[in-house]
Design brief:
Length: about 375
């Protein structure tokens, strides 16, 4: 993107109010690129379908986690796969419908004639027509039989036939102002080829993670206003780890040799296996190795983080399953930010002091109504 267009875009960007729905100022959204798109239903209403299955069931099992699409959800599903009909420069790579939102992967393999946002606006317009038609049908026929639901497709491995848009337009009522999706959308830009498989796995695992979240809400829901010692934290994870009788700060000097670090790792892991909860911001290479080894061994850990959390934050990847199993707690005394920020020397010092404080008897634990210590025993363990 040239400087003139970049400055023009920045004119409309707010620097005061970060949002995951802001576009990347340095990306031309008409050029060849792959995107993961997330859109939410207005008001997060579960209009697209229902969650079914068991969280521990294998992917090839009849009880595997899945979304049973509503007629509206099926229509939105088909609209997504119909995007290439209007923009042949786009290939639909994947889609995962959830009850109140969707995740989809689009590959722009040739330069678009319009900005990607215009493509997605067209998609939303088609979905709005389906939504209005569904509202009209519900008004005219209160008893709306679910037996007429079309076949349910799984997460985007095959392309179903696209709907007849003209018939949908003809059926749509004339009322204005009704919209299915919340304004805007979130996009992620593919940076490496390996990231594509990570995206696909994320989409496929979404129903399973939602089932796990519903079984262990206290371990996977962000909390705020947790006063511990001299700091107030936000976080995600098992707060009962703070009440463990033995808690220890992991401190490994940068001056240690690789052999020394291995000895320290063995010492800390032996203590963790005996029930000690390890606490650290994992700043130095040695601290990272110790905390990683404890995490991989399924031992309980508390991690101090520089970036805070939002009400919609959720653990990622392996952290999700560790939190669900009750063996991980992530804490931060600072507010959330979207951009990457390098740690300052002052922050490193403060985070080490926090870890040390959390390892001592807690004398000022005053959690808010959303952050009470919860000694729940989780039912889920990641296979």
């Amino acid at each position: 993107m040239d400087e003139k267009r970049l400055e023009a875009r920045k004119h409309f960007a707010s620097e005061e109010k970060p949002s995951i729905k802001r576009r990347d100022d340095y990306n031309d959204y008409r050029d060849r690129r792959m995107y993961m798109i997330t859109m939410e239903v207005e008001g997060r209403r579960p209009l697209f379908g229902q969650l079914a299955g068991e969280p521990d069931a294998p992917d090839d099992s009849p009880d595997a986690p899945r979304i049973i699409l509503s007629p509206l959800g099926q229509g939105v599903h088909d609209e997504w796969f119909g995007i290439p009909r209007y923009y042949p420069q786009i290939e639909v790579m994947a889609l995962q419908m959830m009850p109140d939102h969707l995740h989809g992967i689009l590959f722009v393999h040739e330069a678009l004639p319009v900005h990607l946002s215009q493509v997605l606006t067209g998609f939303k317009t088609g979905c709005n027509r389906l939504y209005k038609a569904a509202l009209l049908a519900a008004t005219e026929s209160p008893i709306h039989s679910a037996a007429t639901e079309p076949p349910v497709h799984s997460a985007a491995t095959e392309r179903p036939p696209t709907p007849n848009r003209s018939s949908v337009q003809a059926a749509a009522p004339s009322q204005r102002g009704v919209r299915l999706f919340a304004p805007g959308y979130n996009d992620l830009l593919l940076k490496t080829y390996d990231e594509f498989q990570t995206w696909k796995n994320y989409l496929l695992e979404n129903p399973r993670r939602l089932l796990i979240k519903r079984e262990n809400p206290e371990f996977l829901r962000p909390f705020f206003g947790l006063s511990l010692g001299t700091h107030v934290y936000s976080g995600i994870g098992n707060r009962a780890l703070l009440a463990a009788p033995r808690r220890l700060t992991v401190r490994v000097s940068r001056r240690l040799t690789a052999q020394d670090i291995e000895r320290e790792k063995a010492r800390y892991l032996a203590l963790a296996q005996e029930g000690t909860v390890l606490i650290s911001p994992a700043i130095s290479p040695g601290e990272k190795q110790v905390m990683r080894a404890a995490f991989d061994a399924g031992l309980p850990t508390i991690v101090i983080m520089e970036n805070g959390f939002t009400p919609l934050s959720k653990p990622k990847g392996e952290q999700f399953y560790a939190c669900a199993a009750g063996r991980l707690l992530m804490l931060s005394p600072w507010e959330h930010h979207n951009e990457r920020r390098p740690l300052t020397a002052y922050q490193c010092q403060q985070m080490n002091l926090m870890a040390q404080e959390l390892a001592e008897p807690l004398t000022q634990t005053k959690p808010s109504q959303h952050s009470s210590l919860n000694p729940l025993t989780p039912k889920y363990t990641h296979p």
